[in-house]
Amino acid sequence: MKAAVVYQPGGPDVLRIEERPIPTPGEGQVLVRVKAFGLNRSELMTRKGLSPHVGFPRVLGIECVGQVEVDPSGAYPKGQPVLALMGGMGREFDGSYAEYTLLPKALLHPFESTLPWEILGAIPEMFQTAYGSLYPALAIETGETLLIRGGSSSVGMLATQLAGLAGLTVLATTRNPQKESALRANGATHVLIDEGRLSESVRSIFPEGIDKVLELVGTSTLHDSLQCLKPGGLGCMSGMLAENWTIPDFAPMEYIPATVRLTTYDSGQITSPTPVFQDFIRRVEAGHVKLAISRTFTLDQIVTAHHFMDHNQGTGKLVVLP
């Protein structure tokens, strides 16, 4: 099988396509034929050597959709469509940047769908992060105001739609003014051009502040995002588009406004049950949600795909078809 392997940290060119034996599943494992996978900023960080405790060589890839090839337990028949995400994929063990991947059976979510693989490949991590951030973490409610910082990212685009369908007023941000029309077409009520500080712009629209913030850029903008919240408001940090993990000299009493609350969401810690994924797939099939897919690539184009991701050239998800 073909696999994209990283032997040492670096730029996109460290990704090497090579032939490897198809692995054999052991107890508790399932061999999956990868049909599509989405690209994620966390994989970019791992490739750069910024993910703690990841050893090389490593096949990256924290998510995929595909078909069961071999399940020694017999629980899944050959050809069963499945999706998988997180749980150590591409970090603790080899992930989805390959034609086949060996996954713990516990990570698999079986599903049925009429959607093409390039659409399905965009769903697992993008949906789980957007849904998990909005519902378990932010507990959104109809009539609330929500700021999505990083609104032109794939998660931001989907979160905008989900929040709009739930009856929220959405403020979406982008650093690129050329993406404003795409964000409005995606359902954002207000689009803010992010030059580093937003609190004044937000309060010019909502003087008392807003109810909720979904922070996807990361620690570099989190402090300003929290200043946008009204007393009792809630912020959730779910992304690190700026590739910053930590807050130097964090002083909570100065950093977090009084009565404002801060939480996080990590799909590796809390993942939705299988029926939630299946329900979302049905909503996409019915046209209730439009997935923002910026571009598709083949596995042989993985270096080009990472260059594309490095330079933030897309508005939406990047998908690879092995």
UniProtKB/TrEMBL annotation:
Tagged with keyword Oxidoreductase: yes
SMART domains recorded: PKS_ER (SM00829)
GO molecular function per UniProt: NADPH binding; oxidoreductase activity, acting on NAD(P)H
Pfam families named in the record: ADH_N, ADH_zinc_N_2
Keyword NADP: yes
Domain of life per record: Bacteria
Protein name, per record: Zinc-binding dehydrogenase
